[in-house]
Amino acid sequence: MTVITETKLEFAKLGSRIGAEIRGLDISGDLSQETVAQIRAALNEHKALVFREANILSDEAQVKFASHFGPLTKAHPTVASVEGEENVLPVDSENGSANNWHTDVTFVVNPPQASTLRSIDLPAYGGETLIASSAGAYQDLPEELRNFADTLWAIHTNDYDYSVPKNLEHSNAEERRKEFTRLKFETAHPVVRVHPLTGERGLFIGGFAQRLRIVGLSNTESKDIIRLLQAYVTRPENVVRVNWEPNQVVLFDNRITQHYAPDNYDGQPRKLNRVTIAGDIPVGIDGKPSQALQGDSSTYSVVAPLAAS
Q1: The one catalytic residue among 104, 140, 253, 280
Q2: What is the bridge-based pairing of β-strands 20-23 and 48-52?
Q3: Facing residues of 260 across strands?
Q4: In a structure prediction context, what are the per-residue pLDDT tens digits for the chain, which is 309 residues long?
Q5: Engineered SS bond to 265: which of 16, 127, 241, 309, CB 3.0-4.6 Å?
Q6: CA–CA dist 16, 257 (Å, integer)
Q7: Catalytic residue check, 195
Q8: Domains of the chain with CATH codes
Q9: What is the 3-state secondary structure (H, E, C) of the chain?
Q10: Is the Cβ–Cβ distance between 83 and 46 less than 8 Å?
Q11: Active-site hit among 17, 40, 76, 102
């Protein structure tokens, strides 16, 4: 009797704390349960995976790949999707750069568990994506600061002051902001989130907490504390710098990372497409779940059961 065994996927580490890549793995078709399980295990370990020569050449194929890891969200709670593809968000330099550290859509009560990005148009230089491990940041905190962070909750919102100098604003920034805030969301999340699959603790802050309000503290106190904690997230040893190639997909764990797209390509076209996988409601170390304060995100995303994630 012939026994067919699954090939073990070999991901090469990109850094000691975050990031791994694999080249030549065709992820465009039907993936076996074993392959999906191996990718999930690698994601749990490395938090960001780079698939080079991935053979995903269409939105349909990207949606199919992302669907292996759970139900999908709509493209975005407020921003328009790619025409005819309700799950696909264009990340296009024509609409500005996401050059601030953030975790995707944390202003809703159940942010995506993971995000996929696919290269479409790339500049001749620059245009990388930086991804940071918030678990590494939490581990780096001095014990006293870690214990303090464990007790904190922060307000995340899509309606905040971006504080971008006028000379650095994109030409259609005002129109994009109106679209982004046409529905307003506000959610209280634990500053320290427990990952539901690994049990790791990570700092759950980033761009949409830029309203800089810690529950129970003043705005000034909140700004200082979040600035202090955020500095640990973006320490170089916690960051992987992903260089883009044609036919490339990146999958990262939105529960325990932040990311940043530096505007370092001199106005050249840069376009990626994003598909996100529905997530659960975050919980803090005491098991208390996040609370929606404003906005109904149910039409954007289901609350994904952990068994499906």
Answers
A1: 104
A2: parallel
A3: 130
A4: 433 446 899 999 999 999 999 999 999 999 999 999 999 999 999 999 999 999 999 999 999 999 999 999 999 999 999 999 999 999 998 776 667 899 999 999 999 999 999 999 999 999 999 999 999 999 999 999 999 999 999 999 988 654 444 444 555 667 776 876 788 999 999 999 999 999 999 999 987 655 558 999 988 999 999 999 999 999 999 999 999 999 999 999 999 999 999 999 999 999 999 999 999 999 999 999 999 999 999 999 999 987 544
A5: 127
A6: 15
A7: no
A8: 12-304 (3.60.130.10)
A9: CCCCCCCCCCCEECCCCCCEEEECCCCCCCCCHHHHHHHHHHHHHHCEEEEECCCCCCHHHHHHHHHCCCCECCCCCCCCCECCECCCEEEEHHHCCCCCCECCCCCCCCCCCEEEEEEEECCCCCCCEEEEEHHHHHHHCCHHHHHHHCCCEEEEECCCCCCCCHHHCCCCHHHHHHHHCCCCCEEEEECEEECCCCCCEEECCCHHHCCCCECCCCHHHHHHHHHHHHHHHCCHHHEEEECCCCCEEEEEECCCEEEECCCCCCCCCCEEEEEEECCCCCECCCCCECEEEECCCCCCCCCCCHHHC
A10: no
A11: 102
Q: Which residues is 289 bridged to in the sheet?
A: 283
Which one of the listed residues 76, 118, 201, 259 is annotated catalytic?
259
* CA trace torsion 92, 261, 149, 209 (10° rounding): -40
Assess whether 30 carries a catalytic annotation.
no
Q: In the annotation, is 159 catalytic?
A: no
Report pTM. Answer: 0.92
Label residue 125 exposed, middle or buried (CB < 10 Å: 0-12, 13-18, 19+).
exposed
Tell me whether residue 274 is one of the annotated catalytic residues: yes
As given in the structure block, the two tokens for residue 68 are: 């292996």
